[in-house]
Amino acid sequence: MLNKEQFREFIKLVKKYEDISGSWYNLGIDILNSDLFDISDKISSLFISSHFTNEGYDLVTWWLYENVPKEIYENDTTIVIDTVDKFWEFLIKDKDIYLLD
């Protein structure tokens, strides 16, 4: 099973890739329609699908790629998951729902 440090490293690498590709875009190099982007997307998808259930996959990709407040609404309660550690704690709390063994 995926551990917290592996999860943190994965998130860090995805964010670093986004920063670098954003810098390239600012220099006039658009990789969104390139093989490089497709390969990166497939690697991320493979990693996520190897460690998370379908529900977990949806939640992780939402957290990574959607520019929205990182909040979950559960039983009339708002759960803020705006850091990697808070997000991991939310996932691990219901690991049977979100994580594969």
What can you see in these coordinates?
By secondary structure, this protein is mainly alpha-helical. Helix content is 65%, strand content 8%. The chain contains five helices and two strands; from the N terminus they run H-H-H-E-E-H-H. Strands 1-2 form a two-stranded antiparallel sheet. Strand 1 and strand 2 form a beta hairpin. Helix 2 crosses helix 3. It is globular. The model has no long low-confidence stretch (mean pLDDT 95).
**Structural class, from helix and strand content?**
mainly alpha
Oligomer: single chain
Q: What series of H and E elements makes up the topology?
A: HHHEEHH
Average pLDDT: 95
Query: How many helices does DSSP assign?
Result: 5
Note the gap between the termini. Answer: 5 Å
Overall geometry comes to globular
Please estimate the helix content.
55-70%
For the sheet with most strands, the description reads: 2 strands, antiparallel
> What is the CA-based Rg, rounded?
15 Å
- Order of strands, main sheet, comes to 1-2
The fraction of residues assigned to DSSP E strands is 5-15%
Query: Strand tally, please?
Result: 2
User: Which stretches are low in confidence, meaning pLDDT under 50 for 5 or more residues running?
Assistant: none
